[in-house]
Design goal:
Elements lengths: L3 H5 L40 H30 L12 H26 L17 H18 L5 H16 L2 H4 L23 E2 L16 E6 L12 E5 L19 E5 L11 E3 L4 E3 L6 E3 L5 E4 L8 E2 L1 E3 L5 E3 L29
Antiparallel strand pairs: 1-2, 2-3, 3-4, 4-9, 5-6, 6-7, 7-8, 10-11
Helix pairs in contact: 2-3
Bound molecules: FE2/S2 (inorganic) cluster (FES).
Protein backbone atom coordinates (compact mmCIF):
# COMPACT_ATOMS: atom_id res chain seq x y z
CA UNK A 1 0.00 0.00 0.00
CA UNK A 2 1.36 3.40 -0.94
CA UNK A 3 2.11 5.94 1.72
CA UNK A 4 0.46 9.35 1.84
CA UNK A 5 3.71 10.91 0.75
CA UNK A 6 3.84 8.57 -2.27
CA UNK A 7 0.30 9.42 -3.16
CA UNK A 8 0.95 13.12 -2.84
CA UNK A 9 3.72 12.93 -5.39
CA UNK A 10 1.89 10.76 -7.87
CA UNK A 11 -1.04 11.56 -10.13
CA UNK A 12 -4.41 10.56 -8.73
CA UNK A 13 -5.89 7.53 -10.36
CA UNK A 14 -9.59 7.83 -11.18
CA UNK A 15 -10.15 4.27 -9.97
CA UNK A 16 -8.83 5.30 -6.52
CA UNK A 17 -12.09 7.03 -5.82
CA UNK A 18 -14.34 5.25 -3.42
CA UNK A 19 -17.45 3.78 -5.05
CA UNK A 20 -20.34 6.17 -4.84
CA UNK A 21 -18.15 9.23 -4.25
CA UNK A 22 -17.36 11.85 -6.80
CA UNK A 23 -13.77 12.00 -7.75
CA UNK A 24 -11.88 14.10 -5.23
CA UNK A 25 -10.34 17.37 -6.27
CA UNK A 26 -6.75 17.57 -5.30
CA UNK A 27 -5.98 21.13 -4.29
CA UNK A 28 -2.72 22.60 -5.31
CA UNK A 29 -1.00 24.27 -2.43
CA UNK A 30 0.86 26.34 -4.98
CA UNK A 31 -2.29 27.91 -6.37
CA UNK A 32 -3.38 28.08 -10.00
CA UNK A 33 -1.01 27.41 -12.81
CA UNK A 34 0.96 24.36 -13.73
CA UNK A 35 -0.19 22.28 -10.80
CA UNK A 36 -3.90 22.10 -11.73
CA UNK A 37 -4.02 18.33 -11.83
CA UNK A 38 -0.92 17.48 -9.93
CA UNK A 39 -0.95 17.59 -6.12
CA UNK A 40 1.96 19.32 -4.53
CA UNK A 41 3.01 19.08 -0.89
CA UNK A 42 2.78 22.26 1.13
CA UNK A 43 6.04 24.05 0.97
CA UNK A 44 7.15 27.44 2.17
CA UNK A 45 9.81 27.52 -0.48
CA UNK A 46 8.51 29.03 -3.63
CA UNK A 47 5.03 29.60 -2.30
CA UNK A 48 3.18 31.92 -4.58
CA UNK A 49 1.19 35.00 -3.62
CA UNK A 50 -2.08 33.15 -3.01
CA UNK A 51 -0.46 30.77 -0.61
CA UNK A 52 1.30 33.59 1.17
CA UNK A 53 -1.96 35.51 1.44
CA UNK A 54 -3.79 32.47 2.82
CA UNK A 55 -1.01 31.90 5.30
CA UNK A 56 -1.20 35.47 6.48
CA UNK A 57 -4.98 35.35 6.78
CA UNK A 58 -4.94 32.15 8.84
CA UNK A 59 -2.16 33.49 11.03
CA UNK A 60 -4.10 36.69 11.52
CA UNK A 61 -7.14 34.76 12.72
CA UNK A 62 -5.06 32.73 15.13
CA UNK A 63 -3.47 35.91 16.38
CA UNK A 64 -6.93 37.37 16.87
CA UNK A 65 -7.86 34.30 18.91
CA UNK A 66 -4.79 34.79 21.08
CA UNK A 67 -5.60 38.45 21.61
CA UNK A 68 -9.19 37.53 22.50
CA UNK A 69 -8.04 34.93 25.03
CA UNK A 70 -5.55 37.28 26.66
CA UNK A 71 -8.17 40.01 26.69
CA UNK A 72 -10.67 37.68 28.33
CA UNK A 73 -8.24 36.74 31.09
CA UNK A 74 -7.19 40.36 31.60
CA UNK A 75 -10.83 41.47 31.81
CA UNK A 76 -11.72 38.67 34.17
CA UNK A 77 -8.82 39.45 36.48
CA UNK A 78 -8.52 43.21 36.34
CA UNK A 79 -11.72 44.87 35.13
CA UNK A 80 -13.89 46.34 37.89
CA UNK A 81 -17.09 44.34 38.18
CA UNK A 82 -18.68 45.35 41.46
CA UNK A 83 -21.84 47.34 41.21
CA UNK A 84 -21.07 51.07 41.30
CA UNK A 85 -17.39 50.77 40.39
CA UNK A 86 -16.23 52.83 37.45
CA UNK A 87 -16.84 50.92 34.19
CA UNK A 88 -18.43 47.90 35.91
CA UNK A 89 -21.22 47.92 33.31
CA UNK A 90 -18.74 46.91 30.59
CA UNK A 91 -17.46 43.89 32.47
CA UNK A 92 -19.88 41.30 31.10
CA UNK A 93 -19.95 42.68 27.53
CA UNK A 94 -16.15 42.69 27.47
CA UNK A 95 -16.02 39.11 28.63
CA UNK A 96 -18.46 38.16 25.89
CA UNK A 97 -16.63 40.06 23.17
CA UNK A 98 -13.18 38.77 24.06
CA UNK A 99 -14.38 35.18 24.36
CA UNK A 100 -16.13 35.48 21.00
CA UNK A 101 -12.92 36.75 19.41
CA UNK A 102 -10.98 33.85 20.87
CA UNK A 103 -13.44 31.17 19.74
CA UNK A 104 -14.26 32.64 16.35
CA UNK A 105 -10.57 33.30 15.67
CA UNK A 106 -9.61 29.69 16.30
CA UNK A 107 -12.61 28.28 14.45
CA UNK A 108 -12.39 30.51 11.41
CA UNK A 109 -8.61 30.11 11.27
CA UNK A 110 -8.89 26.32 11.31
CA UNK A 111 -11.52 26.31 8.57
CA UNK A 112 -9.54 28.68 6.40
CA UNK A 113 -6.38 26.68 6.99
CA UNK A 114 -8.09 23.47 5.90
CA UNK A 115 -9.65 25.08 2.84
CA UNK A 116 -6.63 26.94 1.53
CA UNK A 117 -3.39 25.43 2.74
CA UNK A 118 -3.98 21.78 3.56
CA UNK A 119 -3.78 19.13 0.91
CA UNK A 120 -7.26 17.90 0.09
CA UNK A 121 -6.85 14.18 0.04
CA UNK A 122 -9.14 11.27 0.72
CA UNK A 123 -7.48 8.25 2.28
CA UNK A 124 -8.88 4.80 2.83
CA UNK A 125 -7.36 2.81 5.64
CA UNK A 126 -7.56 -0.94 5.35
CA UNK A 127 -9.05 -2.74 8.28
CA UNK A 128 -7.26 -5.53 9.97
CA UNK A 129 -8.59 -8.17 12.33
CA UNK A 130 -9.07 -6.85 15.80
CA UNK A 131 -8.06 -9.98 17.66
CA UNK A 132 -4.36 -10.66 18.02
CA UNK A 133 -2.87 -13.76 16.47
CA UNK A 134 -1.98 -16.86 18.53
CA UNK A 135 1.74 -16.06 18.61
CA UNK A 136 1.06 -12.63 20.11
CA UNK A 137 -1.26 -14.11 22.72
CA UNK A 138 1.26 -16.76 23.66
CA UNK A 139 3.96 -14.07 23.84
CA UNK A 140 1.84 -11.91 26.14
CA UNK A 141 1.12 -14.88 28.41
CA UNK A 142 4.82 -15.64 28.56
CA UNK A 143 5.62 -12.04 29.47
CA UNK A 144 3.02 -12.10 32.24
CA UNK A 145 4.34 -15.36 33.57
CA UNK A 146 7.89 -14.11 33.47
CA UNK A 147 6.82 -10.91 35.25
CA UNK A 148 5.10 -12.88 38.00
CA UNK A 149 8.21 -15.01 38.45
CA UNK A 150 10.53 -12.04 38.49
CA UNK A 151 8.37 -10.21 40.98
CA UNK A 152 8.99 -13.01 43.47
CA UNK A 153 5.26 -13.48 44.09
CA UNK A 154 5.44 -17.17 43.27
CA UNK A 155 8.54 -17.75 45.33
CA UNK A 156 7.49 -15.91 48.49
CA UNK A 157 4.15 -17.16 49.79
CA UNK A 158 3.91 -14.60 52.61
CA UNK A 159 4.45 -11.77 50.17
CA UNK A 160 1.86 -13.26 47.83
CA UNK A 161 -0.77 -13.60 50.52
CA UNK A 162 -0.17 -10.16 51.99
CA UNK A 163 -0.33 -8.69 48.50
CA UNK A 164 -3.63 -10.40 47.78
CA UNK A 165 -4.94 -9.29 51.17
CA UNK A 166 -4.02 -5.70 50.46
CA UNK A 167 -5.76 -5.85 47.08
CA UNK A 168 -8.88 -7.33 48.62
CA UNK A 169 -8.86 -4.61 51.29
CA UNK A 170 -8.54 -1.96 48.62
CA UNK A 171 -11.44 -3.49 46.72
CA UNK A 172 -13.77 -3.24 49.71
CA UNK A 173 -12.54 0.21 50.71
CA UNK A 174 -15.30 2.13 48.86
CA UNK A 175 -18.09 -0.06 50.23
CA UNK A 176 -18.37 1.76 53.62
CA UNK A 177 -18.70 5.02 51.71
CA UNK A 178 -21.91 3.71 50.20
CA UNK A 179 -23.37 3.51 53.68
CA UNK A 180 -22.99 7.25 53.94
CA UNK A 181 -25.67 7.66 51.31
CA UNK A 182 -29.43 7.49 51.12
CA UNK A 183 -31.44 5.56 53.65
CA UNK A 184 -28.37 4.51 55.61
CA UNK A 185 -27.73 8.08 56.64
CA UNK A 186 -29.52 10.79 58.61
CA UNK A 187 -30.95 8.37 61.14
CA UNK A 188 -30.52 11.12 63.70
CA UNK A 189 -32.54 13.46 61.45
CA UNK A 190 -29.88 16.15 61.70
CA UNK A 191 -31.63 18.25 59.08
CA UNK A 192 -34.88 18.08 61.02
CA UNK A 193 -33.42 19.71 64.13
CA UNK A 194 -32.66 23.33 64.88
CA UNK A 195 -31.37 25.13 67.95
CA UNK A 196 -34.84 25.55 69.46
CA UNK A 197 -35.61 23.52 72.55
CA UNK A 198 -38.47 23.30 74.95
CA UNK A 199 -38.27 26.40 77.15
CA UNK A 200 -35.75 28.33 74.98
CA UNK A 201 -36.42 32.04 75.34
CA UNK A 202 -36.82 34.08 72.19
CA UNK A 203 -33.88 36.49 71.83
CA UNK A 204 -33.86 39.53 69.57
CA UNK A 205 -30.94 40.45 67.28
CA UNK A 206 -29.07 42.04 70.20
CA UNK A 207 -29.46 38.96 72.36
CA UNK A 208 -32.16 40.41 74.62
CA UNK A 209 -35.05 38.15 75.59
CA UNK A 210 -38.36 39.27 74.14
CA UNK A 211 -41.32 39.54 76.43
CA UNK A 212 -44.99 40.16 76.06
CA UNK A 213 -45.62 43.83 75.32
CA UNK A 214 -42.34 44.43 73.48
CA UNK A 215 -44.10 44.32 70.14
CA UNK A 216 -46.95 46.53 68.97
CA UNK A 217 -49.82 45.05 66.96
CA UNK A 218 -48.59 44.82 63.37
CA UNK A 219 -44.95 44.62 64.46
CA UNK A 220 -42.40 41.92 63.65
CA UNK A 221 -39.11 40.94 65.23
CA UNK A 222 -36.37 38.51 64.24
CA UNK A 223 -35.88 36.01 67.01
CA UNK A 224 -33.28 33.37 67.83
CA UNK A 225 -33.12 30.59 70.43
CA UNK A 226 -31.52 31.36 73.77
CA UNK A 227 -28.92 28.61 73.49
CA UNK A 228 -25.13 28.95 73.12
CA UNK A 229 -24.45 30.30 69.62
CA UNK A 230 -28.20 30.52 68.97
CA UNK A 231 -27.99 33.85 67.18
CA UNK A 232 -25.52 32.38 64.68
CA UNK A 233 -27.57 29.26 63.92
CA UNK A 234 -28.71 29.78 60.36
CA UNK A 235 -31.41 27.12 60.59
CA UNK A 236 -32.98 28.61 63.72
CA UNK A 237 -33.77 32.16 62.58
CA UNK A 238 -37.44 32.90 63.05
CA UNK A 239 -39.86 35.81 62.87
CA UNK A 240 -42.14 36.82 65.71
CA UNK A 241 -45.25 38.59 64.40
CA UNK A 242 -47.93 40.30 66.40
CA UNK A 243 -51.46 40.81 65.12
CA UNK A 244 -54.80 41.16 66.79
CA UNK A 245 -55.89 37.77 68.19
CA UNK A 246 -59.08 37.90 66.11
CA UNK A 247 -56.98 38.23 62.94
CA UNK A 248 -55.19 34.95 63.52
CA UNK A 249 -56.82 31.89 61.99
CA UNK A 250 -55.35 29.19 64.15
CA UNK A 251 -55.76 25.77 62.65
CA UNK A 252 -57.11 22.79 64.53
CA UNK A 253 -54.71 21.48 67.16
CA UNK A 254 -52.58 24.62 66.90
CA UNK A 255 -54.64 26.74 69.26
CA UNK A 256 -51.85 26.73 71.84
CA UNK A 257 -49.02 27.33 69.39
CA UNK A 258 -49.65 31.08 69.52
CA UNK A 259 -49.84 33.50 72.40
CA UNK A 260 -52.22 36.45 72.50
CA UNK A 261 -51.86 37.27 68.82
CA UNK A 262 -48.12 36.48 68.70
CA UNK A 263 -47.02 33.85 66.21
CA UNK A 264 -43.57 32.63 65.13
CA UNK A 265 -42.51 31.19 61.77
CA UNK A 266 -39.21 30.00 60.41
CA UNK A 267 -37.78 32.68 58.10
CA UNK A 268 -36.12 30.17 55.79
CA UNK A 269 -38.08 29.99 52.57
CA UNK A 270 -39.35 26.52 51.77
CA UNK A 271 -38.48 27.09 48.13
CA UNK A 272 -34.73 27.67 48.07
CA UNK A 273 -33.95 28.98 51.52
CA UNK A 274 -33.90 32.76 51.19
CA UNK A 275 -34.89 34.74 54.29
CA UNK A 276 -38.61 35.54 54.33
CA UNK A 277 -38.80 38.73 56.35
CA UNK A 278 -40.85 41.14 54.28
CA UNK A 279 -44.11 41.48 56.17
CA UNK A 280 -47.08 43.41 54.94
CA UNK A 281 -49.05 44.56 57.93
CA UNK A 282 -52.40 45.13 56.21
CA UNK A 283 -52.64 41.81 54.40
CA UNK A 284 -50.47 39.77 56.82
CA UNK A 285 -48.50 38.52 53.85
CA UNK A 286 -44.92 37.41 54.17
CA UNK A 287 -42.84 37.78 51.00
CA UNK A 288 -39.73 36.02 49.90
CA UNK A 289 -37.55 38.47 47.96
CA UNK A 290 -35.90 35.80 45.84
CA UNK A 291 -38.74 34.36 43.75
CA UNK A 292 -41.74 36.13 45.25
CA UNK A 293 -43.25 33.26 47.17
CA UNK A 294 -45.98 34.72 49.35
CA UNK A 295 -47.19 33.21 52.61
CA UNK A 296 -50.26 34.05 54.67
CA UNK A 297 -48.95 34.74 58.16
CA UNK A 298 -52.47 34.93 59.58
CA UNK A 299 -53.29 31.46 58.33
CA UNK A 300 -50.45 29.07 59.17
CA UNK A 301 -48.09 30.71 56.62
CA UNK A 302 -49.90 28.93 53.81
CA UNK A 303 -48.42 29.45 50.36
CA UNK A 304 -50.49 32.01 48.46
CA UNK A 305 -48.24 32.50 45.48
CA UNK A 306 -44.89 31.54 44.03
CA UNK A 307 -42.75 28.47 43.68
CA UNK A 308 -42.62 27.47 47.37
CA UNK A 309 -44.41 24.15 47.82
CA UNK A 310 -44.79 24.10 51.61
CA UNK A 311 -45.98 26.44 54.33
CA UNK A 312 -43.34 28.06 56.50
CA UNK A 313 -42.87 25.86 59.57
CA UNK A 314 -44.44 27.35 62.68
CA UNK A 315 -42.77 27.39 66.08
CA UNK A 316 -45.12 26.76 68.99
CA UNK A 317 -44.62 29.44 71.67
CA UNK A 318 -45.92 30.51 75.03
CA UNK A 319 -44.59 32.70 77.85
CA UNK A 320 -42.72 31.70 80.98
CA UNK A 321 -43.48 32.79 84.54
CA UNK A 322 -41.62 36.09 83.98
CA UNK A 323 -43.59 36.95 80.85
CA UNK A 324 -40.80 36.13 78.38
CA UNK A 325 -41.63 34.29 75.21
CA UNK A 326 -40.35 30.72 75.11
CA UNK A 327 -40.52 27.92 72.56
CA UNK A 328 -42.70 24.97 73.45
CA UNK A 329 -40.32 22.73 71.52
CA UNK A 330 -38.23 22.63 68.33
CA UNK A 331 -39.98 23.06 64.96
CA UNK A 332 -42.08 19.96 64.44
CA UNK A 333 -40.89 19.57 60.81
CA UNK A 334 -37.62 20.33 58.97
CA UNK A 335 -37.19 23.98 58.10
CA UNK A 336 -36.05 25.26 54.72
CA UNK A 337 -36.25 23.75 51.26
CA UNK A 338 -37.57 20.26 50.77
CA UNK A 339 -35.05 17.50 50.27
CA UNK A 340 -35.41 14.01 48.99
CA UNK A 341 -35.12 12.24 52.33
CA UNK A 342 -37.70 14.44 53.97
CA UNK A 343 -40.59 12.36 55.15
CA UNK A 344 -43.85 13.19 53.39
CA UNK A 345 -45.60 14.13 56.61
CA UNK A 346 -44.81 14.81 60.23
CA UNK A 347 -47.29 14.38 63.02
CA UNK A 348 -48.07 17.75 64.50
CA UNK A 349 -47.82 17.87 68.28
CA UNK A 350 -50.62 19.37 70.31
CA UNK A 351 -50.05 21.34 73.51
CA UNK A 352 -52.35 22.11 76.37
CA UNK A 353 -52.60 25.75 77.37
CA UNK A 354 -50.31 25.58 80.41
CA UNK A 355 -47.40 28.01 80.47
CA UNK A 356 -43.84 26.72 80.72
S1 LIG B 1 -36.26 31.13 47.79
FE1 LIG B 1 -38.12 31.98 48.37
S2 LIG B 1 -39.31 31.93 46.62
FE2 LIG B 1 -37.45 31.06 46.01
Amino acid sequence: MSSIRDRLTSSPEPEDSAPGFAEHDTRSAGGSGAAESEPVAVSHHGANDDTKLAELAVSGLFLLAAVGAVGFIATYVAWPFKYGESGYQYYTPLLGITMTLALVGVGAGAVLWAKTLMVDEETVQERHHLNSDPEDRAGAAAVLKQGAEESGLMKHPILRRSFLLSQAALAILPIPLLFGLGHFQHKERALAKTGWKKGSRLLDELGRPVKIGDLDVGGVKSVFPDVPGGRRMADSAALLIRMRPDQLKTTKNRENWVYEGHIVYSVICTHLGCPVKLYEQQTHHLFCPCHQSTFDAANGAKVLFGPAARNLPQLAITVDADGYFVARDDFYEPVGPSYWERKPSYKEPTYDGTAL
